[in-house]
Amino acid sequence: MSEQMTLGSMTELLKPWTVASRPVSDTRLEVETTAANIVPAVGALKTAQWGFLSAITGLDNSAAVKADSGTAAASGAAPAHNGGGFEVLYHFCRGPSVLTFRVKLPREAPTVPTLSAVVPSALIYEKELAETFGVTIEGIPDRRRQFLSDDWPTNLYPMRKDFSPGSAEGLAQAAPVAVAEERRGTLGTFIVPIGPQHPALKEPGHFELTVDGETVTHAAIRLGYVHRGIEKGAEDRSWIHNIYLMERICGICSHIHSTAYVLGVEKLAGTAVPPRAQAIRTIFAEMERVHSHLLWLGVAAHEAGFDTLFMYSWRDRETIMDLLEEISGNRVNYSVNLLGGVKYDIDAKGTDSLRRGMDFLEKRTRHYLKIVTNDESFLRRTRGVGNITFEQANLLGTVGPTARASGVSRDLRVEAPYLAYADFPVKTVLDTRCDLEARFIVRINELFESYRLIRAILEKLPPGDLAVASPRRVPAGEVISRVEAPRGELFYFIRSGGGVKPDRVKVRTPSLCNWAAVLSVAVGHKLADIPMIMVGIDPCFSCNDRSITVRRRGSDERWTWEELRRYGISYYGGDA
Amino acid sequence: MNVVLAIVAMILFPGGLFVIVGSLAYEYVDRKLVARFQNRVGPRWFQPLADLVKLLVKEEIVPAGVNRGLFIWLPVAALAAAFTAALYIPMAGFPPTWGYRGDLVVTVYLLMMMTLCIGLAGANTTDRFSIVGSTRALTQLFSYEAPFLLALLGPAIAAGTWRISEVNGYARENMWMIVTQPLGFLVALIGLMGKLELPPFDAPEAETEIVSGALTEYSGRGLAFFRLGRDVELLVGLTLISAFYLGGLANPLQFVLKTIGLLFITAALQSLFARLRIDQTVGLWWRAGAVLALVQLLILIGLKSLGVHL
Amino acid sequence: MLNDVFASLFKRPFTELYPYATHPAPARLRGKLLWEESKCKACMLCVRDCPARAIEIEVADRAARKYVFHYHIDRCIYCAQCVASCKENALSMSSELYHLASTDKKTFTEVYRGVGEGACVEEAALDGDAP
Prior knowledge:
The complex is a heterotrimer of chains A (about 575), B (about 300) and C (about 130).
Chain A: H1 3-13, E1 20-25, E2 28-33, H2 38-47, E3 52-60, H3 62-67, E4 86-94, E5 97-105, E6 111-113, H4 122-133, E7 136-138, H5 180-187, E8 206-212, E9 215-222, H6 230-234, H7 239-247, H8 254-269, H9 275-303, H10 307-328, E10 337-338, E11 341-342, H11 348-374, H12 376-382, H13 390-395, H14 400-404, H15 412-415, H16 436-459, E12 477-485, E13 488-496, E14 502-508, H17 510-522, H18 530-536, E15 547-552, E16 555-560, H19 561-571
Chain B: H1 3-11, H2 16-37, H3 47-57, H4 68-86, H5 103-124, H6 128-159, H7 164-173, H8 177-180, H9 182-195, H10 220-245, H11 252-272, H12 281-305
Chain C: H1 2-10, E1 33-35, H2 45-49, E2 55-61, E3 66-72, H3 81-85, E4 91-93, E5 109-113, E6 121-122
């Protein structure tokens, strides 16, 4: 069934709740609906088992009122904005297709009902929307702050266009949200007010685990510890500046972030990127994947107390970092992308180094695969632990290797090929065992796929230019750019108002999708398994310290991540 | 005993200074070996000394709500116990400074003091996590201590004495007991690694590591003493096991070779595994560890009663 | 695993004993920015495109093409966008000058001042630039 047909049938299905329906492109459909109708509409989608909720974008149209002077809209452009109000976009993805529900809201008291009853993973996105835009989410089960710190003033919403960093000064700080009260009755335990102070004094962010003896009975999460306001910052920087801003969202996913961004902008601007540039971008993306998976292997081994494997895998990771430095000039932020192409070419010497590097790494990776599947102590921590069933993975919207290890075949390189993946296809690596061991095996097998792909591209690197000129003013319009980061689907929504700066850049990173799965899976497991389960989804652990509240009957303890990690190791008889 | 000699023994050799220097040296060797196993460089020779000095010069913060006296004196007690244990063993191959019938039991008890002090220190602190750490440390203590003592008992029975110097002498004259009592050696070595919280033979008490667990609230001098105590225990434990199972220690050369050899094995074991496959470590140690040691003892007693000379 | 662990004992440690032993940086390393005045036309594209506002260009004499190039080493993020934006190839990133740490803030502003055609003189000496 072609995508157009599937989307077409969705149009039919959603007719009862549709205000206006608009096929934006072959793979994109926009359905405008009202706040009252969004829940039943999504419900219908869920019943038809179409797609998963990928992201929720908030838009503030007040600037658009000023900027709009009737500029011709490119394909995919938004229709006339609703005169300075808000819009909430719900993006559902299935393979290459994206179905976006558009809800227009008035400027005063914007309200939408919560989707979390129908789509559990919506909670994280709705909270983000509520905190940053000030949209009230009716019926939200949990009013704790997630991204903004507890002492951020109330009624101050950073993503609104009228907010500027100086406007927070002098405002009274909010008291910590007294959500503790809500839960006191239900659990009957003393609850420490959810606050980010903890002994190791790192970023505010924590997991809240309620345990009964050794078993976890409830898990909740608090993020926002490295919230840097990048989406807001992007609105204030030119299109070119933003390449480098997006690159710095993450250290291990830096290239894929900037790639998603430039692909989106190039689509808006109608730039035809030369094939050589796309191929080189692909090589870098795959090299980054290798780097990321090797890094993760070490980190996961460290979480399990297997420090020797950690040291070895990170030693071998130096190979890929040296290769990246050799070709691009930097080990971490490769800064390869330009709007319209790439900066660096891969010459004969680079090709030779890459080939030798891939050979070496492939040998080492086979070795690690053997260790991971044979070492008894390691298997004890991973086999049968952290099961995310196929249904759970589907329902909770997991992406990336986490989903693929549960048999959910989601890989954007295969479903919606971008860059050079159409010419150099990737095989989806699937595993149906659903446990932690499966996640290890999937990632290691993806390493082999990456080595193969890099070699294949080097073999047939298309000749031609490295870059073409790209306009400094990007035509008005909206674009969705989805790529496969090492952790899963990376979702960018970019809106241009026709100027030199973007109107809105929305970034939804893959780890955010996977937290819901972790939290639901955590319940029922032993406390000692939690570090491994969390590391199994490969969350961006660059800031490795989070505070964990362990709630036992009658008392709460506050641990650091490091303490939880060691607890897990020692529980299984190792030494941290 | 001659008072002057006694003071020299306590401060210079084999107690005090010698033990401090020796234990720091052994910590260095251990860390260096583990690093080399992991293809790293490892610390330089003065690193353990630097760590110790650094901790000693740092401010010691006594948290609110603790029993101040206990907080300050527990580390001292732990270190003192470790130092005292050093006086009873054939340190550096020389006969023990003191000895009397039953000093084996006293030494084992002194070695146990360290963990007891850590447990008490954790319980004393008002930090919730320290309490958990201390509970686990004490649980750990119970799981390793019994098999460890039983394993040390084996050679003592073979030698027919409770006195360490006599067991040492016996070991020197007869076949190495690692050959005649392999199970006992295994349990003793593993017990020592567990006691010292060396990977991978660790029970659920990783929290008693430096920055967490029972020692979370310790800083400065207190932490320095606990750490030094651990190192001294390493030295003392290695000496005991090599004296008993590796054919006795007759002179400094044998001492160095045998203890470093044992250290090599422990470092290798530290690097080889994630951790031993132990889920319910305590239960398992009570089952496997104690049983192995008992079996060894039974064999030993049986053989001895049959007149076989070991 | 066992073989690995014991073999490591005899292998040289992988750790590089920096700074006593260094290996040469790759040729494409993006180190300090270098400016060739003779090629520059002061079109200001680099100034505009720099994400970190690390470049400022003063025009001393446009007819004689004398400019002063202020480069903020501490703001630069070493992305090389300026190198790509410059149509005259006047900019490049050094692969040797990358020891840019310093205890003195003054050294973080590099002022390149041309003194005639083809010359590029570095005004401020960098203390922390010892290789």
